[in-house]
Design goal:
21 strands, binds ligand LLP, Lyase, Ornithine Decarboxylase, Chain A, domain 1
């Protein structure tokens, strides 16, 4: 279901010419497909339907209010990791009673905000956090619903910077301590142990880590129930991989196959926190070629988008397909291969760092000053990780729906870059 496709030699998003969007809104430009966002959400919902999950779209993947509103209308709930994300979800008009709140360092103010918002669960990551939540709930004369975030010590084989469920990562509590912490909750009427939470890493390209995690999770829930807790929720976090290259990621149904039977057998409620698998392939980054140059035996294609826009290649050596909007050579199946009619190039940005790349050593057709380039699979962890480094204003965002489109974030101005700075 790819909503970004070449027709008659140029790139479209749904029924809209990308070149028209770039002409109207300028570059760097983020373009999202509504059909793709909804399609991925429905694929996950349908795959897991037998477990009737609460799907909590992970706001950190793409937090644009229009996208949150779209997810809300589609029936998604939300996973948040900060007061700011909770604020966004409220701004988007969501019912916060199904929100999951994760994060290793929630402040008292954030805990209070969560309790005021009647969220579904706090994913609690340490004993100290349990104490803090109990204290704030006590002040507010409330009972806080908590899910212990467990570190199941499962290697999900993701990038070292995005692996979260292995011993030694900062996330969650060692699974062996779960019983002891559960006893503490049982003795405290300001807390109620409604479930457990695990998030193994991101992006995960095999189903096995989930199969192992759900098995461990069910065992822990059973122990909690035996100890007298009314514990029903298993929140398996997010992490489902997507196709950045070709077809490297299992479909949602394959993940569901290893998760749903175990959940049903244990008579548990399932929560999921997918982010990337909903929005990753629903967005692209369009940039314009400023210059090309050959130095040191390499061809550099310099874009007006940079690591401050899309940090993933610089930060994780992440692979994003990249191809011109109006290419002289048809887009290949395999973007890693040697492509005839092309030559290897580094696609870079103008930021003053050698790590500022969008794609390294990629076979690309001849490119000229002014040509538009598309970086694919940029819908997740693109804008949310963008910055103003080098005092570069953030780009505009557009949401396409069939033959229509709508600006969903204006391009930042120079004035906005300095508006919070105080000097006399
Ligand atoms: N739930 C929790 C508790 C998480 O920490 C995350 C992601 C998710 C859900 C959503 O994971 P997803 O379904 O999107 O894979 N910046 C990195 C990814 C960091 C993921 C952080 N946590 C990247 O660009 O690859």
């Amino acid at each position: 279901m790819d909503q970004f496709a070449y027709r008659k030699g140029e790139l479209y998003c749904e029924d809209v010419r990308i070149a028209d969007l770039a002409a109207e809104f300028g570059t760097p430009l983020w373009v999202y497909s509504r059909a793709s966002l909804l399609g991925s959400f429905h694929e996950i919902r349908n795959a897991f339907a037998a477990a009737e999950p609460v799907i909590c779209y992970s706001v950190k993947a793409n937090s644009n209010l229009s996208i949150l509103r779209l997810m809300n209308e589609a029936g998604s709930s939300f996973d948040v990791v900060s007061g700011g994300e909770l604020f966004r979800v409220k701004q988007a008009g969501a019912d916060t009673s199904r929100v999951a709140f994760a994060g290793v360092g929630k402040t008292d103010d954030e805990i209070r905000f969560g309790l005021e918002s009647n969220i579904l669960m706090f994913n609690v990551e340490s004993e100290a956090e349990l104490d803090a939540i109990a204290a704030v709930a006590g002040e507010m004369q409330r009972t806080a619903p908590v899910a212990l975030r467990l570190n199941p010590n499962i290697d999900a084989k993701t990038h070292v910077k995005t692996t979260t469920g292995k011993k030694g990562n900062k996330f969650g509590m060692d699974i062996e301590r779960a019983g002891q912490l559960a006893d503490k909750v049982l003795a405290d009427d300001r807390l109620s142990l409604i479930g457990i939470h695990m998030h193994l890493g991101s992006p995960i390209l095999t189903t096995d880590p989930y199969a192992r995690a759900v098995k461990k999770g069910v065992e822990v829930v059973q122990k909690f129930r035996d100890a007298g807790h009314d514990t029903n929720w298993i929140n398996l976090g997010g992490g489902f991989g997507i196709n950045y290259k070709q077809n490297e990621a299992p479909p949602a149904a394959a993940f569901a196959e290893v998760i749903v039977p175990a959940i049903r057998e244990a008579n548990c409620r399932l929560a999921l926190e997918p982010g990337r698998s909903i929005c990753g392939n629903a967005g692209v980054l369009i940039s314009r070629t400023i210059f090309t140059k050959r130095e040191g035996g390499r061809l550099f294609i310099i874009q007006d988008a940079a690591m401050n826009d899309l940090a993933r290649p610089a930060m994780y050596d992440a692979f994003h397909r990249i191809w011109p909007v109006k290419p002289a050579v048809a887009a290949p199946e395999d973007f890693e291969a040697e492509i005839s009619g092309c030559e290897p190039a580094d696609v870079v940005g103008p930021v003053c760092e050698s790590g500022d790349v969008l794609a390294k050593d990629r076979w690309l057709p001849e490119t000229h000053r002014g040509d538009l380039i598309c970086t694919f699979s940029a819908g997740a962890y693109g804008t949310t990780m963008s910055s103003n480094y080098n005092s570069r204003p953030r780009g505009a965002e557009v949401l396409v729906d069939g033959g229509e489109f709508r600006l969903i974030r204006r391009r930042e101005t120079y004035e906005e870059l300095v508006k919070n700075e105080v000097f006399d």
